[in-house]
Amino acid sequence: MLNTVIFDMDGLLIDSEPLWKEAAQETFEIYKFKLSDAQYLTTTGLRTKEFVHTWFSYAKIDANLMDEAVDTILNKVSQKIAQKGKIMPGVPYIFEFFKNQGFKIGLASSSPMKLIEQVTEAIGIKQYIQQATSAENLLNGKPHPQVYINCALALNSLPTECIAFEDSFNGMIAALSARMTTVVVPEYAHYKQEKWAAANLKISSLLNFNKLHLDLLQQK
Hints:
Oligomer: single chain
Organism: Rhizosphaericola mali
Strand content: 5-15%
Pfam families: HAD_2
Protein name: Hexitol phosphatase HxpB
Number of domains: 2
Mean pLDDT: 96
CATH superfamily of the largest domain: HAD superfamily/HAD-like
Distance between the termini: 10 Å
CATH topology of the largest domain: Rossmann fold
Largest sheet: 6 strands, parallel
């Protein structure tokens, strides 16, 4: 019986993926590396340390500069979210929906806890979230399922009792690997890609999720 919902954050609840991309591209330019939009997309959903390590290795940038680059990206993202972060369509609706269904509500993100707190406060959902977990200090981040498993444990729920909402491929794999019922809300430009077929449900907006969807997921 599904009784818990766990949300990803970046790209799902706040339109921050373009801001992460801006911050990353601006930072990598400092090290004379131009990160393309297509390259960025392949590492969406990873923790910042893993993201930086991937592209530093690819571009053969001195690994001793990695921590500096991570800090620069995180600071830039925080500033950009404060300046122009926009809530995604359907966020107030989906939290009210699950609150009214009596679900426990959690959040599992690759972002640092400091950024999670900033975003949940800024978009007005902090009061709904009973537990939030970050992959920041875990041995493995998404697509490893640990951050989702930790959130379920914190909510005193079994992973099989949880619905996970994700917008990235790495996040979807993490939620599925945690044995959670998984709903994907892909970016419009990538909505028709076949890779989303692994999810239990694909929707174009949080606004589109309703009681019929929930009832169907309960039966799976």
